[in-house]
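Holo prediction. Input below; ligand is zinc ion.
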Amino acid sequence: MSEKFITLKEVALNNNCPECFSKVGLRLTFKQKFIETSFYKSITNTINHNIVCETCNTTIYPVQWTDDIERVFEYHQKAFTPKKTSTYLKKLSWIVILFTAIILVAVVFFILLQSSN
Ligand SMILES: [Zn+2]
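Structure of the complex:
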């Protein structure tokens, strides 16, 4: 099983970095968790967000956020629409389901044949 966080939205912020005070480096990303197994692919409702400063290469954690950053973050969070959660069955799942159905039908058939004798 593999879990992946896929970036759905990335915005450059015009706020000062709380670490290096650069006004050009802050980047806010929203990521959504996807799960993939041999049987299915699934989009979960787990959303991750983080702010990284590309000038000083630091992750800016929410405790370090200034009021301005918080306001901008809330604005972007409201504007962000995650992908709908869904699960797709893969071919392997359908083969297993089909195979099970065929066996069930065969078993029922066998029982019917036995009881008619
Ligand atoms: Zn910085």
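The first helix runs from residue 67 to 79. That is the main takeaway for now.
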